[in-house]
């Protein structure tokens, strides 16, 4: 019996080691780079520390190709919420880990990232709370808060141009969540900073936040974005093609901006985006009794009424996409998963069990679109029709706003 127990224990150890090896094989750890001279231009994080990014060098045929991935992490909309971020990794480069795992679209393995594995791959850290749109000169000595997101973006791009991106043959500005919104808002600006000979396209992952009422009927997210724009002085750094037509805070919503973008852009988004369900449709302020709590943790916990409300949200989301247009330069991968951010994780970017639309995983759809091998504009059928979905399941301890 003891021998059998040892054999079982040995098999268990072998299994654990195999899983660890497999996970390690899927990603690489990349060190941090601080843009120390950015402070001269006032381009700093909320706490005044220098901006930072992680850089994995391109090689082989990808040596002159550049993929910029903007980190997500929500926003802060007033002094109180910005102070809460100031001394965390979302407000200070002093609090950031010095090694970051690259996987998914940032992987350096051809089997996990066939089209971009050998590009120069950069993960830009997010420490300003405004999707890189803020620019307020004054700094209140009482809080030491610096609202300089737009300057941070420009300083990092200038730093990368000096490191070789000025010779780029191909370039992608991408991002997830608040970073996905950044890739939309800065898309044309990014292209303008590169040589006219560079093939430039943008990719937004889970960045298509819509202007929808919450379950109480209030315009919660519109008011929130209005406060973000006011606090960070964002108006002058939002696309003028939008701000010339409507209030600046309305230009934080991609549905009011995307039709004005000249650069080719691809949108990867869940129609039941878990962040938007939790924070736009059913935020805590609209659900004082917590009736949506279990539903937001796991879509399988949702009642028939809640599912019907979520189906209505999907209809609103698809309606907000109409401005994208039918141009083949625009790509769409809109699945019916309960998810948020699907390009940075290997399991959803490209694996044998990854989410698919028309038998196509996200990685292939994006690669085909970028290299003009084939257009891709697919919208999934309603939940729960897609068996390939990786639906997010959150724990009760996870923060729900």
From TrEMBL:
One of its GO terms (cellular component) is plant-type cell wall. It comes from the Eukaryota. Coiled coil: none annotated. Transmembrane segments: none annotated. The keyword Glycoprotein does not apply. It is found in: Secreted, Cell wall. PANTHER family: NOTUM-RELATED, PECTIN ACETYLESTERASE 8. This is Pectin acetylesterase.
């Amino acid at each position: 019996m003891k021998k059998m127990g040892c054999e079982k224990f040995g098999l268990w150890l072998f299994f654990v080691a195999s899983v660890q090896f497999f996970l390690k094989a899927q990603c690489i750890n990349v060190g941090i780079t601080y843009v120390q001279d950015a402070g001269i231009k006032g381009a700093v994080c909320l706490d005044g520390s220098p901006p930072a990014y992680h850089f994995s060098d391109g090689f082989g045929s990808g040596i002159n190709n550049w993929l910029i991935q903007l980190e997500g992490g929500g926003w802060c909309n007033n002094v109180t919420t910005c102070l809460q971020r100031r001394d965390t990794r979302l407000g200070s480069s002093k609090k950031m880990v010095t090694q970051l795992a690259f996987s998914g679209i940032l992987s350096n393995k051809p089997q996990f990232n066939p089209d971009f594995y050998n590009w120069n791959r950069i993960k830009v850290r997010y420490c300003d709370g405004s999707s890189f749109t803020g620019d307020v000169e004054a700094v209140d000595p009482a809080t030491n808060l610096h609202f300089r997101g737009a300057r941070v973006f420009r300083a990092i791009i200038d730093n990368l141009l000096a490191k070789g991106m000025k010779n780029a043959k191909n370039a992608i500005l991408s991002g997830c969540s608040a970073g996905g919104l950044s890739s939309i808002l800065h898309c044309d600006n990014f292209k303008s900073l590169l040589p006219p000979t560079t093939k430039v396209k943008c990719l937004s992952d889970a960045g298509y936040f819509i202007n929808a009422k919450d379950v109480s009927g209030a315009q919660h997210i519109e008011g929130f974005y209005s406060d973000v724009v006011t606090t960070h002085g964002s108006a002058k750094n939002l696309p003028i093609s939008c701000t010339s037509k409507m209030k600046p805070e309305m230009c934080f919503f991609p549905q009011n901006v995307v039709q004005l973008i000249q650069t080719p852009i691809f949108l990867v988004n869940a129609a039941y985006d878990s962040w938007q369900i939790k924070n736009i449709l059913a935020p805590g302020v609209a659900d004082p009794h917590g009736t949506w709590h279990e539903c937001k943790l796991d879509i399988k916990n949702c009642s028939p009424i809640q599912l019907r409300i979520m189906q209505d949200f999907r209809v609103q989301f698809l309606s907000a996409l109409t401005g994208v247009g039918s141009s083949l330069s625009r790509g769409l991968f809109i699945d019916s998963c309960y998810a948020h951010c699907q390009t940075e994780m290997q399991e959803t970017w490209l694996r044998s069990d990854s989410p698919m639309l028309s038998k196509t995983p996200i990685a292939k759809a994006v690669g085909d679109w970028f290299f003009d091998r084939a257009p891709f504009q697919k919208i999934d059928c309603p939940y729960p029709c897609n068996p390939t979905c990786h639906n997010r399941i959150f724990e009760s301890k996870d923060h729900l706003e």
